[in-house]
Amino acid sequence: MNYVVSSVVAxxxxxxxxxxxxxxxxxxQNNTALLPALISSNSPLLVTLPEPIQxxxxxxxxxxxxxxxxxxxxxxTIEFFIDPANQLVADRRGIIIxxxxxxxxxxxxxxxxxxxxxxxxxxxxxxxxxTSKLIIKEIRAERH
Length: 144
What we know:
By secondary structure, the protein is of the alpha+beta class. The protein is built from three helices and seven strands, in the order ααββαβββββ.
């Protein structure tokens, strides 16, 4: 029994680790090509971000891509990292991770710091190898 639990935990941590790498690359490189792998192609995404971005709405998968693409292209990331000091918050349906994101707004040249909170869930569709991937269901932020 312990082997099964250990295997499930190890698998979940490996999937989360791969997701974190993709998320960090997306923000650090301002790489919008990575967005489709991070968001669902068939479920809505709730995005709540304070000024200067000022968005608070639920978007379809296509709208989510366009909104996040616009955010990444209009802001230049200075730093982005998943906060190792804060532990994961997990429930039956998903995981919340926290990230620190500082960026330069290209319109006004000002620097901003956000704490981003990503609510992740396994996607309903299975991949070819029989596993599920994690997707972002909600993004919230606090400005610091």
